[in-house]
Structures are given as C-alpha cells and as structure tokens.
Specification:
The complex is a heterodimer of chains A (290) and B (333).
Chain A (H helix, E strand, L loop, with lengths): L3 H32 L2 E2 L9 E2 L3 H8 L1 H33 L5 H9 L6 H12 L6 H8 L7 H4 L1 H26 L3 H9 L4 H28 L4 H6 L11 H11 L3 H31 L1
Helix pairs in contact in A: 1-13, 2-13, 3-8, 3-10, 3-12, 5-8, 8-10, 9-10, 10-13, 12-13
Chain B lengths: L3 E10 L2 E11 L4 E5 L6 H9 L6 E6 L2 E2 L10 E4 L11 H11 L4 H14 L15 H13 L5 E5 L7 H18 L2 E6 L2 H7 L2 E6 L2 E6 L1 H6 L4 H6 L6 E4 L1 H5 L4 E4 L4 E4 L5 E10 L3 E8 L3 E8 L9 E6 L5 E3 L5 E2 L1
Parallel strand pairs in B: 3-8, 3-9, 6-7, 7-8
Antiparallel strand pairs in B: 1-2, 1-4, 4-5, 9-10, 11-12, 12-18, 13-17, 14-15, 14-17, 15-16, 18-19
Helix pairs in contact in B: 2-3, 2-4
Classes of the chains: A mainly alpha (290), B alpha+beta (333).
C-alpha cells in the first residue's frame, strides 16, 4: 500500500465487504432496538404503538429474568469448570505414550462433531430417560430407584450434556499446549527434586495458563447463547429451572408472541454479553502479555 | 565428595544398542569432558549418570554408594541443559530458588543462598527479571546458578555453550573453568567441540559409537592418540592421515602427521607437492598441498610464508612426530 493510488484502490476493493457486513449487523440490531420500544404482539397485528421503556420495565422486573441470569451464569460456570478440569486431566492422560494413541485421540474429538440437537436428544432419550435410559437401567441393576434427571435436576443435566460436547474442544487445545512444553524443563524440575505433583503445579499448569484463558474466552462466547440443548430437552422447565437468557428471549417473543418484550430482552442480553466480554478481554490481555 | 564410577554400563533403546559396555572412573574434583561426534552416545551417558534414563545393565556408584536405582533428585547431581530449561513464568530469583523450595528450605535460607549464587555469577541486578528478558549468556548463568545453589556432588553440563555465539562461547568457557577452580566440585561436561574439550578438561573421554576410544589429559590425547579415530578427532586442523604405499614404507597401515609437524621448503624434502588452497590467519598460515602418491596434506606454518597457489614445494615430516597405526586402527609404538 505504498502509493496513494494503491490505498484508494484498496478502499474501493474492500468497501463492498464492509458495507455488506455493516448492513448485516446494523439492520437487525436497529430493528431490534426499534421493536423493543413498541407494544408489538403477534396476536394483535397492526396494533403496534410506541410504549417507551415499558417493555424494558416489564422484562427487568419479571422474576423469570433473574432466574434466567442465575441459570445462565450457572450454566457457563459449570460447563467451564467441568471442561477445564476434565480437559487438563484428559490432556495429561492423552499426552502419555500408549498403544493406539492416534485412534483414541480421534475418538476423543468425536463428540464435537455431533450436532447439539442430536447429542441432547441422545442424552435425553438414551441415557437420562427414567424408564428406558441407560442410567435408569444401571440404577435398577444395583437396586436403586431410577432418577429422573431432566425433571429433578434439569440445569445440572443440561450442564452435563453441554460439558460433554465441549470437553473435546478443551482437551484438544490443552493437549496441543501440553505437547509444546519443553521436555527439558520437566527433566530440569525432576533433577531439582520436584515430584510429579510439584511438576504439574509449578511447571505444567503455568505453561497451560495461556491455553486455559483461550478456552475460557471461546467457550464463554458460545456458552452464553446455549439454546438448542434446552429446547429439545427441558423446554426451559420445569418452571424456569433451566431457562437461560437466550431461552427467555425466545419464550417471550415466540411462545408469548410478545415481540416487543423479546426485543427488549435481546438488547439487555447484548449489553450483558458485552460486559462479560470486557472482563474477559482484560483477563486475556493480562495473561497473553508475557 | 563427587566420585563417580560406572561399572559395565549398557544402554539399549529397543534393539538399538547405544552404549554396548562401558567402564569409567571419575575422581572427585575432576573436570571431565565427554567428547565425540554427534550420535556417539555422550549425551545418553550423561543422562544415565543424571538418572534421567535407566541403565539397561551395570552399576553407577556415586561416592562409593550404588546409585543405579536412586531417582535423579536424590543423586546429589545438578544438570545444566542445552536449552538451559529455565522456567519461563518464574523470575530469575524463583528459578534459582526452585530446587531449594522443592527441598523444603524456608524463605530466609532460600534468599540467602540465592543472593550468594547471584553474586558469584554477577546476576544480582537481574534477579527480578524473567528469563525471556535476558540475553543468552545471562540465561546460561541463571541455569548454572540453579545448579550451584543445590551444592551438588557433581555438575553435569549437556552441551551448554552450543546456543551461544562464538565470542560469548569463549568467555563462558573461561567463566565455567574459573567456576570449577573456585568450587573444586566434580564437573562432567558433554560437547562435540574438541576445542572446548581441549581448553577446559582435566581429563577427556573420547567416545565413538558408545565405546570409549581413549581417556586421558588433553595433551596426552594430542601427543599420543591411541587410535586413528582419536588422532583424527582431536586437534584442529585435523591430523593428516595417509594410507597406502607411503604408510607401508613406514611399516604401518595408516600414517598420521599433524599439520605443524610438516616442514615446508622450496628446495628439497621428502615429499614433492603442489600448493592448492591457502588460509591466512595472520598468526598462522594453512596450506593444502597435493603430493603424488600420498594425497592432500594440510601444512601449518607460523606467520606469513610467501608461497602461492600452484607453487611446487617440498614437505618433510618430523620423524619423532609420525604416528603409525595398524590395520585395526590401533597405534603402533
């Protein structure tokens, strides 16, 4: 881009892409913001009128909203905890040389290729079903009463399903990070008198810190908007026990036909996601500097 | 403290026998250099002594105690790695203190010993930096510092200078030698560079394909190499090795003569040859001289000599410095 001519040409060349992206992003966003100030119910078409902040007031004072926030945080936090602890342990295991390593590594990644709806349905019908599920059979085999996961622990069940999907991702990233650790560092630590636990705490874990931050960032972005798993398993219930923010917006606009309220919820979700993003970026920046 | 004896050590990786069978004694306070071409098993031998690899058979004794089955940390040896193996997320201070922390020393004792080691190695100003902010020579010193604080029975160095540039290598070489003279601890040093071996060692162990070719002081190895391999490996530029009729005339399969033991004359001498390449270093001049029936020989002359490419010259080997080798490669005396 040395000459002014080249710079102008470059601007002209990229402008269609920029305009397309802008339109793609701005039109839905501004329409959502506009809708959020309307009394807009799908059951009463043509009766839209300006209501000011009323939609926001209703959405924010809805008890379901606070449940949804709590559930969203539980879901994100729970899945992050399971995937990172499990991912580190699995990565340590897969880093050991053993027969059939290649095949096992491919198998470990497999859950990531299964569509969320499919995997959630498989879990719901084949594992967690209190009558025909595998867990029910296992419980009956040892003389226990089958546990109805989705009815009695709906959020935990969804956390388990989502964690199962994301564990391979965390394992894969952490495994590659672990493989990049200089083996001489581990040997030096061994010579210095560090036992295996000390080697893990003082050498491996600090080395993995950067990879763990990356996993947290990427997973948080996707976990904040979990939807399909909830829709096909619990439908947000019982009550609001497994409703997260995404599902609440869906329920508001498409189950209660209140597009205005749903849009207000969407705008609030955007704001909350951005707050989370700011914190994450700060954390990442601090961790990626050194 | 620091006597190491290897008794009939062997090491195999699967079907590959890296070290066939090896005996070696290292006395307390010695600076021993393992030298040999790459892949000769010298690093493996060091790792066997360190305990990072298990011997396939044989015994390792440290200070008279059988240490064959003792884990690395309990052998009382400290190792400096080729890549330095510093812990990148810890400050220099914590790097040096790490072995003490693992040994369970309290904070005050740790910092006293770290300060003392830093003083010896001129690292006092860098204690709060991270390894990534240091130069190659400083990192090297941190790695040595981490070894010193443990007050080991012996230091093991695995090609520690190979990542440094030429000038720094020379100064680090002197620093390590001085360190050895002040600490008087046994040091085992692995290198493929015979100049490092010659300048630093009390005792050189020349290795080839896992076997010890010769053990001795640098000058003994230089003056009386036990076989063709040692003769060719020790000394720079290499010893001239002559096969065929000329060697047979002296009753040997191979004849060896060092470049400085060939007298060069314009008028007469034993061998007549034509000058090829010449390298002028100022203090010395090296000529490649092609002699019919003998081959291409390297000749070393002090200072500048007025001989040009294509000139005809005569070479005379100094008789007491001729090395004769049998067909097996062994020296004939």
């Amino acid at each position: 881009m040395a000459t002014r001519h080249a710079r102008t040409a470059a601007r002209i060349m990229i402008s269609p892409a920029v305009l397309l992206l802008l339109g793609w992003m701005l039109v839905p966003l501004s329409m959502t913001v506009y809708f959020s100030f309307l009394r807009y119910n799908l059951l009463m078409p043509g009766m839209e009128e300006w209501t000011g902040w009323l939609n926001y007031e209703f959405f924010l004072t809805d008890p379901a909203f606070f449940d949804a926030i709590g559930n969203t945080l539980m879901l994100v936090g729970g899945v992050l905890l399971i995937t990172i602890v499990g991912g580190v342990l699995l990565a340590l295991l897969l880093d050991q040389p053993f027969w059939g390593q290649g095949v096992v590594r491919v198998l470990v990644i497999a859950p990531f290729f299964v569509m969320p709806t499919v995997s959630a349905l498989v879990w719901k019908n084949m594992f967690m079903n209190p009558v025909s599920g595998l867990f029910a059979h296992a419980a009956k085999a040892v003389g226990l009463a089958p546990f109805d996961f989705l009815a009695h622990a709906p959020l935990l069940s969804i956390i388990l399903i989502v964690a199962w999907q994301w564990l391979p991702f965390a394992t894969l990233i952490l495994l590659t990070a672990l493989q990049s650790l200089d083996s001489e560092q581990l040997e030096a630590a061994e010579m210095d008198g560090a036992n295996p636990l000390n080697r893990f705490v003082f050498i491996m874990l600090p080395h993995l810190a950067r990879a763990i931050t990356v996993v947290i960032l990427i997973q948080t972005i996707f976990l904040l908007s979990i939807f399909a798993e909830i829709l096909v398993t619990t439908n947000g219930g019982p009550g609001t026990a497994s409703t997260n923010l995404t599902f609440l917006v869906y329920a508001q606009s498409l189950l209660q036909f209140d597009v205005g309220g749903g849009s207000a919820g969407g705008v609030i979700a955007i704001i909350l996601a951005n707050i989370v993003a700011i914190f994450l970026m700060r954390m990442i920046g601090k961790n990626l500097e050194t | 403290m620091g006597q190491i004896v290897l008794k009939q050590i062997t090491k195999s990786f699967g079907t590959v026998h890296v070290i066939p069978c090896l005996d070696l004694e290292i006395d307390d306070g010695e600076f021993v250099v393992f030298v040999g071409p790459s892949g000769c098993g010298k690093s493996t031998l060091l790792r066997l002594i360190a305990g990072l690899e298990d011997v396939s058979s044989g015994h390792i004794e440290i200070d008279g105690r059988d240490a064959t089955a003792v884990p690395p940390a309990k052998r009382g040896l400290a190792m400096v790695f080729q890549s330095y193996a510093l812990y990148p997320h810890m400050s220099v201070r914590n790097n040096i203190a790490f072995p003490l922390r693992m040994a369970g020393l309290d904070k005050a004792a740790r910092s006293a010993r770290v300060e003392a080691a830093a003083k010896i190695l001129n690292l006092t100003d860098y204690l709060d930096r991270r390894p990534g902010q240091l130069s190659g020579g400083q990192r090297q010193r941190v790695a040595i510092g981490r070894a010193i604080v443990r007050e080991p029975a012996a230091f093991l160095f695995d090609e520690p200078l190979s990542n440094l540039d030429a000038a720094l290598r020379v100064s680090m070489r002197q620093e390590i030698t001085e360190l050895h003279q002040s600490l008087k601890t046994t040091m085992i040093y692995v290198t493929h560079d015979q100049v490092e071996a010659m300048t630093m060692a009390d005792k050189i162990v020349v290795l080839n394909a896992g076997r010890i070719e010769q053990v001795g002081t640098p000058l003994a190895l230089y003056a009386t190499p036990a076989n063709v391999f040692v003769a060719g490996f020790i000394g720079s530029p290499r010893m001239n090795l002559i096969d065929g009729a000329e060697a047979a005339r002296h009753g040997a399969a191979t004849l060896g003569i060092r470049p400085e033991h060939l007298a060069l004359s314009r008028d007469d001498g034993a061998w007549k040859g034509v000058v090829g390449l010449s390298e002028h270093l100022g203090s010395d001049t090296f000529f490649r001289v092609t002699v019919d029936g003998v081959g291409s020989l390297t000749v070393r002359q002090s200072g500048e000599v007025d001989v040009k490419r294509g000139d005809t010259v005569f070479l005379t080997p100094s008789a007491p410095h001729l090395h004769r080798f049998a067909a097996t490669g062994e020296a004939m005396r």
